[in-house]
Amino acid sequence: MSHTGPVPSNDGSPSYLWLTILPLTLFVLLLWGFSQYPLPWSFELGWVDSLGVSLAFRVDGLAAQMLVLIIGIGTLVFVYADGYLAHEPGKGWLFAVLLSFMLAMIGAVTADNLILLFMFWELTSLTSFLLVGFKHQDLHARAAARQALLVTMGGGLALLGGMLLLGQMAGTWSVTAIIAAVPTLIPDPRLPYALMLVLIGAFTKSAQFPFHFWLPNAMSAPTPVSAYLHSATMVKLGIYLLARLDAGFNHVVIWEAALIGIGTLTALWAAILTLRERDLKRILAYSTVAALGTLTLLIGLPSPRAGLAVAAFLFAHALYKAPLFMVAGNIDHATGTRSIDHLMGLRRSMPWTAAAAVLASLSMAGLPLSFGFVAKGAISAAKAEAELLAAVSYTTVLVNAVAVAVAGVAAIRVFWGPPETPRGRVHEVPWRMLLPPLLIVLLGIEFEFLPNFADPLLFQAARAISPGLGAVELGNFFDFSPVVSLTAITATIGLLVFLSWDRLHRMLHSWHWLDRFGPAVLYERLLHGLPRLAAWQTQGLQHGRLGGYLRLILAALLLMEGWIWWHSGASPVLDWRWPPHAWAWVIACLLMGAGAVAAIFLRQRLAVLMASGLVGYGSAVLFLFAGAPDLAFTQFVVETVLVVVAASVLPLYLHDAVVSVKPRVTDIGLAVAAGVGTFLLLSHLNTLPADTTLSDWFLRHSLPEAHGRNVVNVIIVDFRSLDTLGEIAVLAFSLLAALPLLAGLKRRTTP
Amino acid sequence: MPHSSLLAKAARPMYWLMLTAAVWILLRGHNEPGGGFIGGLLAVAASSMLAIIVGVRTARRYQPLPPMSLATAGVGLALLSGIVGMATGHPYLSPMWGPIGLSTVLIFDLGVFCTVWGTLSGYIYALLGDEEANS
Fold it and tell me: Which of A164, A286, A352, B88 has the fewest CB atoms nearer than 10 Å to its CB?
């Protein structure tokens, strides 16, 4: 089914169908592996041993199920994308990122080390950002990509915090070991915080309330991306993590409560918002959010059968939602619109797409003969076992009814009825866009009739989520009669919702308060508030006036000194002893004092420069006699170069030779206060005992170990040479950064 | 800028004198006050003197490499000096000693010297209005 090499299509953009061979090979290998080697498979390679981080991978039932979805649907998405983007010049880029995304997903669901898992997790966010922003010339696509990135990466930060806490509490980074160690973690007071942080991370990724808003907006991605990332795989990664950890935390109350509460709220909220949309793709996106909410709720259920429900619904949802997205893409491709107001009677012109839509919708509505029916059965069995609040049960019925209505919109409303007034001729799309959705839905049907293939996979996954699950079979797992009656109830309500879709839509659309409040609006406010905050603090702190900076620094210094005095409760002590060479100290101080006073009163720029140079020379003299000849030497050279260069350079940039700023009384007061405060602090510090361990060590070891009597230089080039390396690198980089700035300065001052 | 011809004549010999002093300071640094940093600063003093008196173009020509390349070479030397130790199984940047006081430490110090010389002279040339500051 693949060519060997880029085949130019009609407009010259090459076909990448041959690339499908990569995921296809992986898929075949995976299935072969399942038939040959029993799960779990594990594999470990050392990486950063000192931190306990290793390249540990483990494939158990849950990971295997995710792998089948990621690689299997990925293969077909590659085929679909090649058809969908046949005329897109940037197709190669898309395929490259899709492939990276697939590898990141494979890594994330197989990683058995928290740090490794986090790394892959962030990689999926990053590749998702690139894919959502694929049409980067489009303003909306850019905004949506940024939103997806900020929300999922922000959650990723919380996740990292939670993982670090979990790892520290358990003393290991291995996911398996942490889950096994959960009973010992329960009494730890840090556990609630760790769980909250992990939950925030998983909720942002899986678009749970209040972070759900990024997912519908991410629909500005090309349809293959929506079908793959935003229905079948990436958004399930949060669900995967929750399911993975649920094996351990299933009986922790806040974990359960958060999952059931947020899951229910998300499902209900998304079901309501679904009815407000007219765009087919956005309708599907909101129903995906509702499905993710249902999955979260199911994970939170305490019964062991919940594991089976999660596994079945995870599978069923991917198998019907990805084809439905592809159907929406086909319609968009053929008619140029996705608005359900303009789409009717497409059945005749697009029969194959219609077939895929009907079969996928059967499963979505949970009607008999579909895999969705099996999933529904597993879900109601799990719910029957757990004692649920009535509100949760009613909510799920309502959410399911809306799902039925969405299925009706996607399969019936769009394809049946009289054909719309012709808007050009609508053709069926090419085979590359038909085969993938049809193949996926047929697989779904096949699983229903030939359970031998799907069942082992589902049970292995279910047991990974709920270790308490016994040996059961999917077929006789539940009593059919309540499910059939339940299906009949949901289907009836769903039918009513479907028939009154337009009326409900008008009603919900008139609820304008939904647009003014809610998390999406809060996100916009924050996003727009950030530059304003930055502008405000920049104006306050980075105003470019040297005097202002000095004032700020001196005031902060004074505050800190005051705080130290007040905090330590010590009173200033003056321990006055004359040092050796006291005469030289006096001369040095006189030099510095004279320089400082002269700098205040002189008005000529060059004279001020010389006076400040005098302060530098004075301090060099001080260093010379205080036992720091290296420092004195450096100070002399620096001061000389500075004064000479500044004297040559200043006239080039400043055209008036006289300083126009007059000293102000408040500034003088501030300067004097800061000076006196620092003097008092230093003289007090001098009376405290100093820790000389390090300097003694350097003095003792300099000559015997580094063959040098100049301890300062030995420290610079030998003992702490890595520090020096960093410093000189920074020095060189600073020139690189400064050269363009200096060139700009030159241009501005010489017209 | 008007200069005295005496100063213009003396600038080049003075430059070599100062540069010799800078290298001497660099070499003696391990036992006496000195080292790559101070030596480099002295070399900067020499280069800036030449740049102010004779011109940036001349000062640039009297350096072994253009400023940015000199700084980069300095960082590179320091980086490379650390590898020598690794070749014999020691950790990165372990000092290695050869005959007549030659050592990787000296190469490292030479790297510091070149970085300081290149970077600061680059700044000064740019400030003095060098046309080819970016080379």
Answer: B88
